[in-house]
Specification:
CATH superfamily: E3 ubiquitin-protein ligase SopA
Low-confidence stretches: 190-202
Strand content: 25-35%
CATH topology: Pectate Lyase C-like
CATH architecture: 3 Solenoid
Number of domains: 1
Number of strands: 16
Structural class: mainly beta
Length: about 200
């Protein structure tokens, strides 16, 4: 049974929607917890108050999608791409985003606390009011992006690159970052500066 057929039953948890192609929908108040969307494609879809808790969404593509008040806690987004997407008041706590790409996106007032965002890319993306507390962003790449009102408290920022990005109002207490912080902070104490090569703004 495909996604549109399952909507009618209102039972969308623990389902396998791999390789689904969905376009032009407005989805509100759905629970998709524990479902699988491997290699699925989403285009021009609005998600409002949708719960994706512990979903498996690897190698999926989201284009021109809007997410409001959505829950992505403990979701696996391995190698997933978001292009021209908008997020507001969303939760990504404990989410895994290895090699995930955000391109031309807006991410506003969202919580990425304790997320694992490894070797991910944020390209031409605006992030405002984001909580990265206790998150791991090792190897992640921010290019030509705007980061404003960001909480990097106790965040692992090793080998993170902020190429041509604008950074405003950054909280970085106990952040792990080797090299000079591009928002004007000082190098982490007690570690050799060449142990990791974090790069600042060009």
């Amino acid at each position: 049974m495909n996604f549109l057929e399952k909507i009618k039953t209102k039972d969308l948890t623990e389902c396998d929607f791999s390789n689904e192609v969905l376009e032009g929908l407005s989805l509100e108040g759905l629970s998709l917890c524990f479902s699988t969307f491997t290699c699925a494609s989403f285009k021009n879809i609005t998600f409002k108050d949708v719960d994706f808790t512990e979903c498996f969404i690897p190698e999926a593509d989201f284009t021109n999608c809007k997410f409001e008040n959505c829950i992505f806690d403990r979701v696996n987004f391995q190698r997933t791409n978001f292009d021209k997407c908008f997020f507001e008041n969303c939760s990504f706590k404990y989410a895994f985003m290895g090699l995930t790409k955000f391109i031309n996106c807006d991410i506003i007032n969202s919580n990425m606390e304790k997320a694992q965002i490894l070797d991910a890319s944020f390209l031409n993306t605006r992030l405002k009011g984001i909580n990265f507390k206790d998150a791991i962003l090792k190897g992640t790449y921010f290019q030509e992006s705007i980061l404003e009102n960001i909480d990097f408290i106790n965040t692992d920022l090793r080998s993170v690159n902020f190429k041509n990005s604008i950074l405003k109002n950054i909280k970085d207490i106990d952040a792990v970052f080797y090299g000079k912080k591009p928002w004007g902070g000082i190098s982490s104490e007690g570690h050799p500066l060449d142990e990791y090569n974090s790069e600042g703004v060009d």
